Please model this.
Amino acid sequence: MTSGSVAAVDLGATSGRVIVGRFVDGSIEMETVGRFLNEPIQTPGGLQWDLMALYRGVRDGLREAFRVAPDIASIGIDSWAVDYALLRGDRMLGTPFHYRDERTAAGVEAVHDVESFEELYRRNGLQFLPFNTLYQLACEQGVTDTADAMLLVPDLFAWLLTGEKVAERTNASTTGLLDVTTKEWDLELAEKLGLPTRIFPKLVDPGETIGDLLPSVAKELGGSAPVVAVGSHDTASAVVAVPMKADRAAYISCGTWGLVGVETREPVLTDAAREHNFTNEGGAFGRTRFLHNVMGLWLLSETIREWERTSGEKIDLPALLAEAAAVSGEVGVFDANDPVFMPPGDMPGRIAEWLAAHGQPVPQTRAEFARSIVESLAEAFAGAVRTAGELSGIPVETIHIVGGGSLNELLCQRTADRAGVAVEAGPVEATAIGNLLVQGRAAGFVEGELDEMREAVAAAFPPKRYAPA
Model:
């Protein structure tokens, strides 16, 4: 085992980071060398990502990474799933749309006119989400006819850096166009939906080299290294770094979304799994992430954004959560999975309307709103954990919460209370750690299989335990 450095590009739905990971004698040290906002833009055509602003942040971060660690052995990129750009040659055919854009409703109808959801689940194993890539592509028939490649967001950035067009398999598994059994593109389904099969690039697995930096990019960044595929769906990277015993634990990767599930060796494709809207997504090292998407901290962040917009004041989140923890008496609990909470906008108003319509107490203060959101998320998390265990046959003895939600002590405790199962929280940087570990293993800086890597994560980043009350 040797020592060395790698760089992780971690793109979230609200911000991005570049992190240098240094491996010394099997341990890992992390240094964040770049941070930048990710703010979508409402255009006449719809809600779209500001791709060039993100790319500028990535390049600035990588330039700093080469400055502080000239020996960087590789670069890995992860991001949110399902969104993409279409290319013809080396030109993008427009800016990628945001998965919250309203255009996807027409795509759902167009796809289900051709293939029922029951048949889709048999083929791709995915829960119904109206923004899955196949529904988005169904809205762009005219554009897809002229395209020769579709690149998901991490693969798009890899192409910008290397000129190579590939599709990393864990992220491709979220498109609805990857066969859940063979893990290859379902070209028969693509043809049935009227999608040209030429747009689907070669698939690669975590740990494979995508390509070296283009000479012009290397010159600007002040260094060169290959881009290596990681679990490019950020949840796939996060699950690598969950310090769990997979045969008796559940995980919650909690950020903008709450991804709640278990890790299995094979997909779970039963009627019950489909009816409970559970998804089978690809994981690193051939594992399956059997999980359910819960709305996540989007509910809280969008509520705070509305308060700040209307009041002009900055909300102190730790203070708000402390006040929420002190709220006594009953608070309303709403369905955190209700699609009414999907779009941006007046989240407090929608929560109040939902609670009133369902005979629940309506919060009167900001602290009560925050407590209602936390209780609703905890209930959704606990329910999804129970269902994941029942559907998969995994006896859940511990729930691991990683990501930003692991810092929310009230949420961790109330999830443990409602689930009746201990919660272990952390690491908060699970996505970046998983990204770095896959690269480190490919470079020879990390030894062992996935279980051993998780033991190392637990030793380096001891989780905080919350016993159920």
